[in-house]
């Protein structure tokens, strides 16, 4: 216990301080090189210019960020709601898995940028097509991760459960799902970041608000610093959502193998 407490400051330094210093060095280097080589602002603005222009429209940036975040969270919630039962169906029977996997691959092989305009025609020019595109981008890796976790249970544990006359439901809740927790949260981390990508792709095609819409309109009027500000906001959104998934796993499942491996290094 004492040794674990001693490791926490070093782990905090490794996970927070070092990345922060690396980002700071990158920003300073970016600023210096842009000013030294006198790069035009419409090609590559300096970080100070990006911050200044973004601050001027901070309220508007906040409105666009909230709109994109709403689409991201709705798409992620839909992907979780559909992926979990689909993964259970895939792992319940090889025949069902063989029937569903080709359909999953088919949906993943369709370019979402090409699909987005069709969804606007089918579903209307509202938020629903954006949520569906976000869902389509995120749910495939989530299904694969959950399915892999459910199938990765050692046969010895399954045999032990059957020897104890555990029902299918008991086997799922007490053996398969707990063992699959690291896989499930790995899928969550990938899916939540892909949701940010999917939301922006959808906003490029159909939106009157959102960070993707802000990037399109800013570049159309050569407001490149503002477009860079929106891109940075998207990056921060992805990082924060990813870290929230990490924190949720550590809080709910501290025994998770993924968290233990991360803390051990």
From TrEMBL:
Domain ABC transmembrane type-1 residues, every copy: 65-245
Membrane topology type: Multi-pass membrane protein
Transmembrane segments: 16-37, 71-91, 103-125, 131-158, 179-202, 222-246
Family membership noted in the UniProt record: Belongs to the binding-protein-dependent transport system permease family.
GO CC terms, sorted: plasma membrane
Cell compartment(s), UniProt: Cell membrane
Main location: membrane
GO BP terms, alphabetized: transmembrane transport
Keywords, in A-Z order: Cell membrane, Membrane, Transmembrane, Transmembrane helix, Transport
Protein name according to UniProt: ABC transporter permease
InterPro entries from the UniProt entry: MetI-like (IPR000515), MetI-like_sf (IPR035906)
């Amino acid at each position: 216990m004492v040794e674990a407490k001693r490791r926490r400051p070093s782990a905090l330094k490794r996970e927070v301080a070092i990345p922060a210093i690396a980002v700071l060095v990158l920003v300073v280097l970016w600023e210096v090189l842009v000013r030294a080589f006198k790069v035009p602002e419409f090609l590559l603005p300096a970080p100070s210019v990006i911050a200044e222009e973004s601050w001027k429209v901070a309220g508007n940036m906040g409105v666009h960020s909230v709109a994109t975040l709403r689409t991201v969270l709705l798409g992620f919630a839909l992907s979780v709601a559909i992926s979990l039962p689909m993964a259970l169906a895939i792992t319940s029977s090889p025949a069902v898995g063989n029937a569903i996997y080709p359909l999953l691959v088919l949906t993943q092989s369709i370019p979402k940028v090409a699909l987005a305009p069709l969804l606007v025609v089918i579903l209307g020019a509202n938020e629903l097509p954006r949520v569906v595109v976000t869902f389509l981008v995120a749910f495939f890796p989530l299904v694969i991760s959950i399915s892999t976790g459910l199938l990765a249970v050692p046969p010895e544990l399954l045999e032990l459960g059957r020897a104890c006359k555990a029902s299918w439901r008991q086997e799922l809740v007490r053996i398969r799902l707990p063992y699959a927790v690291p896989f499930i949260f790995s899928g969550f981390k990938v899916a939540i970041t892909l949701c940010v990508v999917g939301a922006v792709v959808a906003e490029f095609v159909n939106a009157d608000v959102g960070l993707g819409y802000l990037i399109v309109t800013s570049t159309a009027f050569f407001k490149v610093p503002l477009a860079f500000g929106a891109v940075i906001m998207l990056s921060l959104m992805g990082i924060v959502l990813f870290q929230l998934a990490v924190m949720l796993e550590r809080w709910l499942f501290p025994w998770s193998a993924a968290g233990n491996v991360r803390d051990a290094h």
